[in-house]
Known about the structure:
Elements: H1 2-7, H2 9-41, H3 43-58, H4 61-72, H5 76-100, H6 104-112, H7 117-155, H8 160-169, H9 173-202, H10 204-209
Amino acid sequence: MWAETVDGLLLHHMTMTLGRVVAAFAIAMGVGTALGLVMGRSRKGDLWLGPWVTVFLNIPALVVIVLCYLWIGLNELAAILAVSINKTAMVAVMVREGTRALDPALDDLSTAYRMPRWTRARHVIWPQLQPHMFAAMRNGVAIIWKIVLVVEFLGRPNGIGFQIHLYFQLFETGYVLAYAFSFVALMLVVEYALFARWEKRSTAWRRLAA
């Protein structure tokens, strides 16, 4: 790990992988959240979208990656799209279940007081969805970066997955572990420095209410 850091290779490839993880995570969370809200709030929406979400939940990630590379080409668009598709369905399901669990009494109360849509989303819907959203985000990061490694392993010229593939061919176990553990360490930093603090700050009202 130290040798690759001194050469600058570790930072370069980690940056490339992290960029793909962030892009795929943003797309998957955005699209998945929108689909989950539609399915959770609309019976017709769930009727039409539910079967598709189930299909994409059960398609192996490897199949999606290979098809994206075949149809789009060995480029960044195909790589990020393949990862996003694999995660979007899971986010949609988690958000849908959270939306279904919303308290209808609070919904009626916000309607009675004629709360603006943004105020209702911020003070009524979001606090109830928080546990499901944080679960989706944590699960998303854990799964997305693993799929990104497979995408890089199969068809990218850089990234942690590419380096693992390279050193696998050279039978260099130490280098494979160095790249794997370095990105695990980065994900731990993201968890405790970002998600944990954000969750603590967002749920502070619960401790005050108690």
